[in-house]
Structures are given as structure tokens and as C-alpha cells.
Amino acid sequence: MNHRERVIKALNFEEPDRVPIMENGIDTPLMEKITGDSFPYAVSRQSPIITDRSHESMRVDLRLKCWRKIDFDLFPIDLSTPDGWKPQMTPEGDMVDLWGRIMKLDKMTRAWIPYSTVFTDPDDYDEFEFPDPLEGGWVYALEYAKRNLEGEMALASSLRDPFAHAWEMFTPMKFVLWMYREPSFIKRVIEDIADFNIGIIKRVAEVGVDLIISSGDYCDAKGPMVPLSFFRDTIFPNLRRQVDAAHKSGVKYIKHTDGNINSLLPDLADIVDGCHSLDPSAGVDIGSVKKTYGDRLVLMGNISVDNLALKGRADIVEEVKRCIRDASPGGGHILSSSNSWAAGARLENCLAMVEAGKTYGVYPIKM
Amino acid sequence: MPKSLRELILGLADISEIKDLIDNELRSHKNPQLIVDELSQTLREVGDKYERGELFLSELMMIGYLASEAASNLKPHLSGAGKRSRGKTVMGTVRGDIHDVGKNIVVMMLQADGWEVIDLGVDVPPEEFVEAIRKEKPVILGLSALLTSTLEEMRNVIKALEKSGLRDKVKVIVGGRPITRMIAKEMGADGYADDSVAAIRAVREMARRGGGT
Question: Are strands A252-257 and A274-277 parallel, antiparallel or unpaired?
Fold first, then answer.
């Protein structure tokens, strides 16, 4: 069974030869350590920012080499910048991205991270030139990866969730202020971003991706960041529209969110095909999720990123064994960390996660 | 019956309603210190509610904003002891980390609770913290981080304070998602908080034990 076949089986709630293993992302410094190659250009997890196509190809090459070296089963890659777009730089050296987010460069991870916004009040939004999903170039990295993979690993497209997108576009404080003071405005923005995403979903489906992983958090460690009524009125209907668009093209849709998602699980199980993160540090018990939703939700994550950074190899092996014992029987489980391999993670722990997954994840599960 | 300040804040009322209430109470010669006390009491209740999972993050942020605005409105009307802050604090997210949602909530809540807050922003290098401690002479320094990878930077700030001879001049509280009691103790902090509400509590506790006024 090759990597892709293993993932497809798991996505269809069947038992493959062993539990598939993936990571949603690995910070550049860690990928360089793994591959021995260097990549001198900064990236962003929230937004496509690399405009030079040779640099973008290098980004995919580094990632492919890293994923192959680790022997992952699933290759997720995000969108590229549309053709001809150039970022605007502020006098302070910050970058304004496609969505009006002002981003600072985090020198440690060499990633641009949103911290401010060009929007001072809701009226600015109507003047804002919204990105067009029909422009060329968005799927450059995906097409490049598809050509190079030739079906070896399953291919996933990362897509930013409209809620997370708007939360960052306006900054969290402005988003919250406008959510309470001008709820119809925030609803309109989330609908607009969902429309954009639906346009993109058609494009990524044409490339031939196997699944979409929607990035951006709904929850923090305490639970959902906004009231459940807002989820049901605004976030979930737009999530459903995106999932329907993906399903129409035969593509599975996985929702990533950090934090304590327990109270959202009944709704999510009704909308998406799977959940990624299942953060144990935030109180998510993968065994309990498996018991209740294991026939409807593909489960991905649950190896604590805090433990990958702070604990020892033996602890990680035990965590993987627990995760496999609780989530792998019957399929529908893809082993991964609860977020990504961050620059501060201990590489030996990350590699121990993969090794333990291969050792203990062989079907039928014998733990 | 008109709503109280507590009811307006917990009900996420418009800031103009809150300002109108404060103006009316001041016109009726209510002691402004009593309004400050009511605000402070409300924030304690908000903290407890958030800890019990009865408030969402967005509600906590909105309440922080409203309470901070209310406190600014009251400040010119306070006199004597009431006008003095409960103490000065310096806050910042350490170098390598630009996440500030938690820190900003802490800043708003502390301001509303009568503290003077010097907010150094995000991605703050150790030498900038040292300089701020030297210049501002705060009773409490709050270091924030979201990323596990930036825990080392918190240690660097504490080491820089030791090196500059300022460590015993200020109480250091470290806060953020990856922080545990053991990590805080190991890095030599005086207190810790794993979320914004716990940070407010830690500042108050530190002040009660002699760190502030």
C-alpha cells in the first residue's frame, strides 16, 4: 500500500496497512535541519506572500524533500500568490498582505505573522480590493506539488477559514468590537471570504487534491472564542457552503482548530469530514471523541505540541501509543501533532512520534 | 429601573450608555471612588465567570474594552488617594513572539482596575525590558508569550534583569499558554498565569503580598 492509498483508506473509515502519519506544517528552520538544505526566503502560514515563482518552487521542493525524508503519507500545501501581485511594505519594514493584514517578520521561525490591519473602520472594507479566486497563480504550488508527487502521497490543500481570516484581517479587538456593534457587517465579510474560498475550492479540486484542510482556530484552551450563537448564525452556515462545494468536486474537507473544541463537536460532526488538532493540552480526549463521533469524523492530531517541545522521547512514545490505542481501530485516524512541528520543537521527539506511529500503528491494532 | 454599571458592562452595553451612567452618577455627587470600586468588583466577577467557562473570549475582550474606557472616563474625577494608581506595571510580549491578544486583555483589565500600565508591545528584546524597568520603576513586570519556542526568551529577560542588578527591584510574572507553575519557578519568575484572567489575579496577589500599593 503506498502513502496515498493509506490515507484514502483512513479517510473512508477503513483500516489501511498502518495508521497514516502526517504533519500540517513544519517551520522552516526545522525543515532545514531535517533536509540539510537551506531556504533563505521568509514564508507565512496565514497568507501566500512569495511572489517569485522560482522561490515558490524551492519552497515546495524543500517541503517535499522533508516530507519524503520523514516518510509522511500526506502532503499539505497552501496557496500561492496570484499572478502579478506584489506586497506593499510599510516604512517600518512590515508587510501588508493580500487581505490587508499588516505582518511582522518573526526572525526565529522566519515567518511573517499578522499583528495589525489597514482597516480602521468598517467603511474601509468597501474600498478594499478583494482578491479574485479566478486570477491565475493561486494553485501554482499545488500544481507543482501534484506534478512532483505523481500520486506517491495524498495531496491536501490548506485553505484559511473565513472566521480566522476576518479575525486577523481586522485584528482580534476590532473584529470583536464590530461583531457586537455591527454584526451584519462581520457576517457579510465572512460570507464574502466563504465565497472566495468556494471559488478557490473549485480551482484546487481541478488540480486533483484529495482533501482540503481548513486552517485557523475557532477555540482557545477554554473553549470557543465567540458565542455558540455566532457559530450557528454565521460561521457554520458558511463552513457548510464550503464543505458542500468540496464534496461536489469529490474532495474531503477537514477542519483544523486548536483549543478545546468539545462543545463544537456535535455541529462539526454534522458538517465536516474530520477534525485536526484535537489538542490534549486544551482538554480534548481523542478516545472520547472517537467513541462518540468516530464513525463520522476522521481524527487527526492529539500529540501535544507542548510535549514535543518540553518532554522526552519516552513520553512521546507513550503518547503515540495512547493515541493509536484510542483512535486508530476501525480506521478514520491519521497520526499527527496537535498543530505542527514548530521551530522550538525537539527534533528527536518529532522523529520519535513518527517511529512510534510506524511501530505501533500496524493494523490490526494490538494494544 | 436604570441598569447598574455592573449590569451594563456584563450586558456588553454600548460605551455611550456606560459613559452616560457615570456622568449621571457624578452629577448626583456620587463619590467617584465608589464607582471605581464597583468597576473593580465587576472585573473580579468577570474573571470568576471566565474561569468557570461562563464567558467566551470575545465577551472577555469586549468587557475589557468597556471597563478600560469607563476607567479613563472616571480618572479626571478622582482626587487624592483615588487618583493614584494601585501601582505601576510594565507589560510586553517577549522577543520572537508577536501574539498580543492575551496581553492586550490584561492591559485593558489592569487599567480598568486602577493600575498604571506601560505596554511595550510585542517582540520586545530583553534590553528594552531592562531599560523600561530602570526608567519606569514598576512594581510588577509582566512577560507574555504564546509560543513554546519563546519560553527561552523569558529566561533571557530574567537573566538580563539579574545582570543589570534590577532583579530584586521588580516582581516578574510570566504568562501565556505554555506556562506552568514548574516552568515559571524554574526560570526564576515570581508568579505565573496561563491565561489573561489568571494574570490579573497574579498581579493583584503580588500587590497584596507587597509588590504594589
Answer: parallel
| Closest CB to A222 among B57, B97, B122 | B57
Please give the C-alpha separations between residue B161 and each of B29, B70, B189, B207, in angstroms, as whole numbers.
46, 35, 11, 20
**Cell numbers representing residue A202 in the block:** 473549485
Q: What is the pLDDT of residues A163-221, one digit of tens each?
A: 999 999 999 999 999 999 999 999 999 999 999 999 999 999 999 999 999 999 999 98
Crossing angle between the packed helical segments A313-327 and A286-293, to the nearest 10 degrees: 10
Cα–Cα distance between A320 and A311 in angstroms, integer? 13
B58:A225 CB<8 A: yes
**What ipTM does the predicted assembly reach?**
0.93
Q: What fold is seen in the domain B5-82?
A: 1.10.1240
User: Position of cell 479587538?
Assistant: A173
Compute the half-sphere exposure of residue A288: CA atoms within 13 Å on the CB side of its CA: 11
Question: What number of residues does chain B have?
Answer: 213
For residue A113, CA distances in Å to A45, A57, B121 come to 8, 22, 15
Q: What is the grid cell recorded at B64?
A: 475589557
Q: Tell me the per-residue pLDDT of B115-139, one tens digit each, with 9 for 90 and over.
A: 999 999 988 999 999 999 999 999 9
Fold of B88-211: Rossmann fold (3.40.50)
Q: Is the pLDDT of residue B213 over 60?
A: no
C-alpha A162: how far from its chain's center?
13
A chain contacts of residue B150, beta-carbon cutoff 8 Å = 108, 344
Report d(CA A298, CA A15) in Å as an integer. 12
Q: Which residue in B96, B101, B151 is closest to A106 by CB distance?
A: B96
pTM reported for the whole predicted model: 0.90
Question: Which domains, and CATH codes, for chain A?
Answer: 3-84+118-360 (3.20.20.210)
